[in-house]
Amino acid sequence: MRCKKMAKNFDELLSKVSSCSKKKLSVACAQDKAVLEAVKAAKERGIADSILVGDEAKIREIAATIDMDLADYEIINVEDTVEASLAAVKLVHDKKADMYLKGLLDTKTFLKSVLNKECGLRTGKPLSHVCVFEIPGIDRLLFFTDVAFIPYPTLEDKVNIINYTVEVANACGVENPKVAPLAAVEVVNPKMPVTVDAQQLTEMNEKGEITGCIVDGPLSLDIALYKEAAAEKGALDRKVAGDADILLFPDIHAGNLVYKAIVHMVPVKNGNILTGTQAPVILTSRSDTCETKVNSIALAAVMAEEMMK
Known about the structure:
Number of strands: 11
Strand order of the largest sheet: 8-7-9-6-5-10
Distance between the termini: 10 Å
Strand content: 15-25%
Largest sheet: 6 strands, mixed
Structural class: alpha/beta
């Protein structure tokens, strides 16, 4: 069954998962308390079952401390972290699992497994990252990109990032998302290259070279999100003014600073996913809360459903 209803917050996204077919998660180096807590919660909420790959003795030891019954989990004992990551990603590559989650291993090793030529999930396109936010006062989910992966995206990169993020938005039920290529100003200034890129992306969308969305830039963050700001600045005629779904950041510095400011200063909910892969990949941080990890698994589940179409 395809889950089409638009999710306006994470409660609705979690509900949306229940209308999708049950997904299976492959966890690389699952011997981590925070990861096992998220995996347990995901199973209890009906989001996904999991295959736990890693040091079985440590997995069982940790599971006992969080009252996690492992009877219903498949465990594959691989003690070496590199070998465990390759075994876990191969399960997804071979369609024995639908999604791939990072456990207790460093990000470099995890990404090497994702990009492995023989058993990984590479597509030949660059990887990117999407963070989905539920923010108080905003009546919809917001899709931030790229706040963690591509440092200085080229125009071509930005086209790929938009296409990736539109797919994630579609998976969450947003059929024709509005994309705001962000800048410090809402007018084109040749001395500010990101504004030129934003104009070119808008023109590419108008010509049908970028499809499935509405692109309008450059836009400042306030105009993209708030109609009051757009009215004050005489920008209500802009196609995305006050209604942006996707915020395309000009570089990793702008995106990451806004991301961290929101996460640490505002009571928000969020989930994260890598894009540009054959199947959903969840690259969580050890500092992420259990809720964020569960939200990320739910996001990957609806994305997996979308990729089955």
